[in-house]
Amino acid sequence: MTLSLTPLLSTLEIVAIIQRLAQAIDQDYNSQSLTAVVVLKGAVFFAADLLRALQTPVAGIEFVQLASYGPRKQSSGTVVTIQALSAEQILGKHLLVIEDIIDTGRSLAHLLAQLQAHHPCSLKVCVLLDKPSCRQVTVPIDYIGQAIPDRFVVGYGLDFDEQYRQLPAIYTLA
Question: What torsion do the CA atoms of 147, 150, 153, 156 make, to the nearest 10 degrees?
């Protein structure tokens, strides 16, 4: 089976989105330090670029890993935590969850419940891509980079069965 890639967001468009998000985060945090919670693996590229664009002090960078897709283009509907944070990593901190894409909302809802259980001082969410037409669970998103149509996307950290993450732009996969 041959898969084809169609450009959706260029590298320059991604840079502009990141600058806009960084400005909004800087304005909201007003020099108050935050702890970034990066959702592995897809958000690594986005998080690295976003965190470098911030003026807001970053007190820490933590990583969580969830799984719901596996080797297919549709979520299994079941979210599994592969790597979680401890209570000490969360308690009393201003957390900014950095996620690559939100579609059904199940993974984010799962993660937010885990984080809230350990009483952060505040909890906000920044997402590069949002598929609002796919939402099955209502989740709060404080910073949205770009809403996109219901298409499977790869590149800039997003993958299909661990492939295409290294691409510098975002493409639809057909």
Answer: 10
Q: One of 49, 100, 103, 130 is an active-site residue; which one?
A: 103
Spatial separation of the C-alpha atoms in residues 19 and 89, rounded to whole Å = 27
- Check if the beta carbon of residue 96 is closer than 8 Å to that of residue 124: yes
- Active site annotation includes 49: no
Q: How far is CA 42 from the centre of its chain?
A: 7
**Residue for token digits 């001082």?**
121
> What is the SS3 assignment for 112?
helix
Burial code (b: 16+ CB inside 10 Å, e: under 16) for 39-72 equals: bbbbbbbbbebbbebbebeeeeebbbebebbeee
| Neighbouring-strand partners of residue 62 | 37
Separation of alpha carbons 99 and 86, rounded Å: 19
pTM over 0.85: yes
pLDDT in tens, 79-89: 677 777 787 88
Q: What structural domains does the chain harbor?
A: 12-164 (3.40.50.2020)
Chain segment 117-129, per-residue pLDDT in tens: 999 999 999 999 9
